[in-house]
Amino acid sequence: MAESVVKFVLEKLGDVVVKEVLHLYGVGEQVEKVSRELSRIQAFIKDADRRRIVDERQKQWVKEVRDLAYRIEDVIDTFLVEMPEPKPGKREAVKRWFMKTKNFRVFQRVGDDINQIMARIQEINESRITYGITNIGEGIEEEIRQPVRRIVLPDNDEAGIVGFEADTDKITSLLLDETTTRRSVVSIVGPGGLGKTTLARKVYNSEDVKKQFDVRMWVVISQTFDPIDILRKIAKQLEIQQPQDLSEHELAELYRSLATKRYFLVLDDIWKNDLWTQIEGILPNSNNMSRVLITTRFFDVAKEADPLSTPYKLQFLTEELSLELFLKKALINRNSNEECPHDLLDIGKKFVKRCDGLPLALIVLGGLLSKKQANYATWSRMMQTMNWGVDGEECLAIIGTSYEDLPLALKSCFMYFAAFPEDHDIPAQSLIRMWIAEGFIPQIQNRTLEDTAYSFLEDLAQRSMIQVSHRDFDGSITFCRIHDLLHSLAIQKAKDDNFLMVCSNSEDLRNCGQMQRLAIHGSSWDSKGKESEELYYNIASASPNLRSLFSWERIPKIAELMHLRLCCFAGVFGQLEFLEIFNLEQLEELKIEEGAMPALKKLAVIFCPKLRVPSGLQYLTVLQNLVWHSRISEGMENQIRSICKHVPSIDISRSGF
């Protein structure tokens, strides 16, 4: 991962405009020297990134290089913000003004910073020799995958799952049992990766179930759940207005709405047995055959929900079904009528045995092998060299190996999934725009960045590192998500690499340190706690060098995050009526999810020269006044006016102030 960071910084230092500004203000030669030294280090980083480093000293060296690259970028960004590019024809005047004013201190500070960086580079070069990191990667270009050829294009990944027919029939029969008129709870119990959610979705989407119930609702339960948040999600699916806090009157309305219907509610992935006791009072028992289906890893959670019902224990796949699923993933280019070669079949059975009938392990391992040559020598080498972990942890070892097999650019793309909440359906178009904005997608000759980004997404899907929720009519991915075990891996890898940190509570936020990206997850924040409020509104002091911020809760203070390039907010501005974005010179993209700011009446964008037209402006349905005072093109102005035809007052000043 360090190489991708270094590569990104070197590209920035090589930018023509950046170089011109740096030379104008007298720091160009110093920065070029830093760039040359960083280029030399890059070759060694390729070696380190391509090997599975076990030595803790080598890991520390890679971390130091990555942090140094971030430090260089911070210094350059800060300088460019404080010393913006002068207009043509005024360069000499600006330079004289600069040398005579207090801004000369900026030059002195940058000079001191660069001297410190050069000293740090010298230390890193000396420690490289000590740690035994060689230069074998020099001259090797990062492999860029070609677009994945889509052979089989089901609407979603669940269409390719095997072995759930009998389970689906059994769960469906329990839900439709006419002898049980009370509101009963049916539970699916089993370990992570066994397919509980997949089975629940098959049942949820079956025609028999659709016909039986007046309304169906699906709610994902995180480990740090909030009962009010769960009830709010239920209310949304019933098309009841969603207040930020549910009063007694609003809870009564929710209860009455459910009491008049035969409802079917899925609570997916429950971890704690006290959840049911906190929400069951709002789920009426009208003796009309309403049903609740829960998935959980824990037998006691299932019994707590309904002591009168026997939990359904999902079984591991048989050896025969395991082999079928594995080969379907591993030999993706094979014709369905074509028999598997005997030598591959024999070693394939050995792979299958390692997976112990766990579907997630089978599809991830199959996805890994689908990227390799389908011959005995390659598969045999994989069998011998893979880290299989200890007994009971084979699945974690398999998904860990699949991550290590990713090309460098794809590792960044995979870790980015940590920014999204668990089991979140992610729009593919929005995701690839974020990847591009972050600089993850390399420019390839004769291909657009969007095409390359889509090929990366397809690659992750073929490897079963992500799940396809839906494809368009032409087979392209429109929505995707990630399994909770792989999501946990993404979170851990992102944290280890100082790539992104997920904060689910105030303690996490205290420890975010110099993290480059921050995602606010979970519902465990005390909405009335003074300490949590102070932490939320002072992210700038906790992580001043933040590059990207994702908030799935309340809006934090972002005014001091001068390096911020990308903001993504969803469902966090419920009561906000006025939003001003002021003087964020590095901000390039602002994404507004539908329903994120339902009460917003005024939006002001002041001096954000790099900001493109925000995605989702059309969702600001009650917006009365839009102020945009920042340098934009005529085309951008026309686009804004076209999107915001519903806004009565629009004030755009293309020159800035």
From TrEMBL:
Record has Repeat as a keyword: yes
Keyword vocabulary terms for this entry: Leucine-rich repeat, Nucleotide-binding, Plant defense, Repeat
Ranges where the Disease resistance protein winged helix domain occurs: 420-490
Domain of life according to the entry: Eukaryota
Gene3D superfamilies in the record: 1.20.5.4130, Helical domain of apoptotic protease-activating factors, P-loop containing nucleotide triphosphate hydrolases, Winged helix-like DNA-binding domain superfamily/Winged helix DNA-binding domain
GO terms under biological process: defense response to bacterium; innate immune response-activating signaling pathway; plant-type hypersensitive response
Keyword Nucleus: no
Family (UniProt): Belongs to the disease resistance NB-LRR family.
PANTHER family: DISEASE RESISTANCE PROTEIN RP (PTHR23155), DISEASE RESISTANCE RPP8-LIKE PROTEIN 3-RELATED (PTHR23155:SF1185)
Identification of the protein by name: Disease resistance protein (CC-NBS-LRR class) family
Organism: Rhynchospora pubera
Phylogenetic classification of the source organism: Eukaryota, Viridiplantae, Streptophyta, Embryophyta, Tracheophyta
